[in-house]
Amino acid sequence: MSRNCFIGQSGGPTVAINASLAGIVARCKEEGYDHIYGMINGIKGLLEDHYIDLGEIFDSSDKITQLKNSPAMYLGSCRFKLPNIILAPGTYEKLFKKFNAMDITDVFYIGGNDSMDTVAKLSTYAKAINSPIRFIGIPKTIDNDLMGTDHTPGFGSAAKYVASSMLEVFYDSAIYKLNAVTIVEIMGRNAGWLTAASALARENGATVPDLIYLPEVPFDTDKFLADIHEKFKEKSSIIIAVSEGIRNKEGNFLDQDSKYTKRDAFGHVLHSGTGKVLESIVYKEFHCKVRSIELNVLQRCAMHIASSTDIEESFQIGEFAVKQAISGETGVMIVVKRLSDTPYQIQCETLDVTKVANLEHKIPVEWINKDHNDITPALHDYLYPLIQGEVHVNYANGIPQYIDISHLRNKMIKE
């Protein structure tokens, strides 16, 4: 039987999303796929006939390895939500006409919550028209907020970056003996996994962050200031990790009324300013040196400090997706099940994608301390295995040498 597939990537970039792509390509080649097509800029790009033949490009194991160890998204991305099937059947008719013309047997789509919505809609439409095409979702997101999986590809490496950055901020701030507060704002709209990972900076004897604030519990400004007062009794320099998405007991984001507030294509608030809001509050209370640091996109694609556990698992997930498609599965997302923390062991499984799409996985409240300003040992034990191991990165002219992405230039697509 002839086998041909499409692979797409969408949403935000990560260190590990190309590792999953590499795993799919490697396994498809091993299984003898005739064509391995890559959508340029996701499903939006495919609707505009932008795609390439990955099988021809990645014709050696060395090239696949270079793809595996390159950050961001080789195929580009989009933030495009497929319309309701009933209201806009023409979009689906166009896509499936293309799939059928190219004898597509499998479609693999790598992404987060909204990408899994795409997989769910495509597989639902396929079933409605009795199409045999299989649709498989491969998870990715540094936020670690996808339901149904122990953790998501990309999170472990971002967590490693956050912890390492926190440690380096500690060394930077330790040189002066004066009262100072440093606030580090970390990505996480509704889930605080990345901010919680800042606690891993303590692994080698450091004592930072001194305080951690997560969006899963209400933020109390008076309690926040009282916490700092207590810490100043112990030390002169205080470092605080805070999620961009913290909100008060009324459910309002701290930066909600900022004049800089923007929204993405899906209507999600693009938070940028939580650290600045807190910086102002702290300065008014303590009149000491206060600075805020926003890690922002820096925590997404730092391959130079990636977790090899993350990269290898992501590659494995890509391979497993191909195996499941060949076995006949469709309308599923590949998930990770943790078998044990020590020794750390996982296995890949599948889950109905409709049970995942548009849902969020948040930190269990019992994994946050009773004062709501730190994590518990249980959360530490969950995080610790995910940042282990280093990735070999090739350097040229003094900087990392990643895979060529010239095919993405001048490919502007209207959202």
TrEMBL record:
Q: Which residues bind diphosphate?
A: 12
Q: Where in the cell is it found?
A: Cytoplasm
Q: Which domain of life is it from?
A: Bacteria
Pathway, per record: Carbohydrate degradation; glycolysis; D-glyceraldehyde 3-phosphate and glycerone phosphate from D-glucose: step 3/4
Annotated binding of substrate, by residue: 141-143, 187-189, 244
Q: Which GO terms describe its cellular component?
A: cytoplasm
Q: Catalyzes what?
A: beta-D-fructose 6-phosphate + diphosphate = beta-D-fructose 1,6-bisphosphate + phosphate + H(+)
List, in alphabetical order, the GO biological process terms annotated in this UniProt record: fructose 6-phosphate metabolic process
Q: Which cofactor does it need?
A: Mg(2+)
- UniProt KW Cell division keyword: no
Q: Give the record's keywords alphabetically.
A: Cytoplasm, Glycolysis, Kinase, Magnesium, Metal-binding, Transferase
Q: Which GO terms describe its molecular function?
A: 6-phosphofructokinase activity; diphosphate-fructose-6-phosphate 1-phosphotransferase activity; metal ion binding
Function of this protein?
A: Catalyzes the phosphorylation of D-fructose 6-phosphate, the first committing step of glycolysis. Uses inorganic phosphate (PPi) as phosphoryl donor instead of ATP like common ATP-dependent phosphofructokinases (ATP-PFKs), which renders the reaction reversible, and can thus function both in glycolysis and gluconeogenesis. Consistently, PPi-PFK can replace the enzymes of both the forward (ATP-PFK) and reverse (fructose-bisphosphatase (FBPase)) reactions.
The record ties this protein, via NCBIfam families, to:
PRK14072.1
Q: Which family does it belong to?
A: Belongs to the phosphofructokinase type A (PFKA) family. PPi-dependent PFK group II subfamily. Clade 'B2' sub-subfamily.
Q: What is this protein called?
A: Pyrophosphate--fructose 6-phosphate 1-phosphotransferase
**Record organism:** Intestinibaculum porci
